[in-house]
């Protein structure tokens, strides 16, 4: 019975990395910008956060460093695609490739580094409840923060004027510009906010989830987070559920191994990506449903003078 509680706990932790990154990318796409550089931003944030943690022994400074790294790279991406009108897809891919190489270069001296452990995040009283305490109430605060972030985004996007403006920029930037809204600045702020959240996700991976730095440790999670936004049809609550689903797929394979079911390591490595392909293939069978929910101007450049 305890093994299932541990499985549920590991699913929530694994899903948190995907959830925070995907929610950041959702903010980008709601403003009409597609950032394929999530993988690179998360890797740079992972090494920035880990290095900050190693030198300060403060995990929260590690998360702050990760968020800053993600925001800086996203700001660079934003300037290129929003003001210089470079191709969003090509620029995002270039950012992703840059992040892979740069993080590997910077992280050479941190491969064997150790970080202080022994932190306990059990919630008082609730953490002592049999089974449920292990499964739900002994997580890092960011696990609960991801849930609050999804709820906050639902409120922001659909209950506030600022959220309405952000969505209008993603639907029709020309109309928003005609009404006097600074479309480019709004898009840049959305891109930076999304990059900061990708940075937090990357830092969470190295600082808390694994507690170490390994080259290319994000291992495709940035691409899965990108797929999640489509899988969730750009709805924050669905992003959260999808993140836990993909996190569960990853952890289920390890659970099967632990209970004696032999699973080749190659299968373990491919399961999250196989699940991503299957889900995207299923939802692509109804393209009309995707079009209804997809921001109309996603991936399209905006020229104020035109």
From TrEMBL:
Q: Which domain of life is it from?
A: Bacteria
Record bears the keyword Cell membrane: yes
- Quote the CDD domains the UniProt record gives: TM_PBP1_transp_TpRbsC_like
Transmembrane residue ranges: 6-26, 33-54, 60-84, 91-111, 141-158, 188-207, 263-283
Q: Which InterPro entries match?
A: ABC_transp_permease
Keyword vocabulary terms for this entry = Cell membrane, Membrane, Transmembrane, Transmembrane helix
User: What name appears for this protein in its UniProt entry?
Assistant: ABC transporter permease
User: What organism does the record attribute this protein to?
Assistant: Xenophilus arseniciresistens
Q: What is the lineage of its organism?
A: Bacteria, Pseudomonadati, Pseudomonadota, Betaproteobacteria, Burkholderiales
């Amino acid at each position: 019975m305890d093994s299932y509680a541990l499985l549920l706990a590991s699913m929530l932790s694994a899903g948190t990395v995907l959830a925070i990154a995907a929610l950041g990318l959702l903010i980008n796409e709601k403003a009409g910008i597609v950032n394929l550089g999530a993988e690179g931003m998360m890797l740079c944030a992972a090494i920035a956060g880990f290095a900050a943690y190693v030198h300060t022994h403060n995990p929260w400074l590690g998360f702050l460093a990760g968020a800053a790294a993600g925001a800086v790279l996203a700001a660079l991406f934003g300037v290129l695609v929003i003001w210089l009108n470079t191709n969003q897809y090509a620029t995002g891919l270039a950012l992703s490739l840059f992040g892979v190489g740069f993080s590997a270069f910077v992280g050479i001296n941190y491969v064997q580094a150790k970080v202080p452990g022994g932190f306990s995040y059990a919630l008082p009283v609730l953490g002592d409840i049999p089974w449920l305490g292990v499964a739900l109430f002994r997580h890092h605060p960011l696990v609960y923060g991801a849930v609050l972030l999804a709820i906050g985004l639902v409120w922001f996007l659909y209950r506030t004027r600022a959220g309405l403006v952000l969505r209008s920029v993603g639907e029709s930037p020309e109309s928003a510009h005609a009404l006097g809204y600074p479309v480019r600045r709004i898009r840049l702020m959305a891109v930076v906010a999304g990059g900061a959240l990708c940075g937090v996700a990357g830092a969470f991976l190295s600082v808390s989830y694994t507690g170490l730095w390994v080259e290319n440790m994000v291992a495709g999670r940035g691409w899965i987070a990108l797929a999640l936004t489509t899988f969730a049809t750009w709805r924050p609550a669905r992003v959260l559920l999808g993140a836990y689903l993909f996190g569960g797929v990853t952890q289920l394979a390890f659970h099967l191994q632990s209970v004696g079911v032999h699973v080749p390591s190659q299968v373990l490595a491919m399961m999250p990506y196989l699940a991503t392909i299957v889900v995207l293939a299923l939802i692509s069978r109804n393209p009309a449903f995707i079009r209804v929910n997809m921001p109309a101007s996603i991936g399209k450049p905006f020229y104020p003078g035109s």
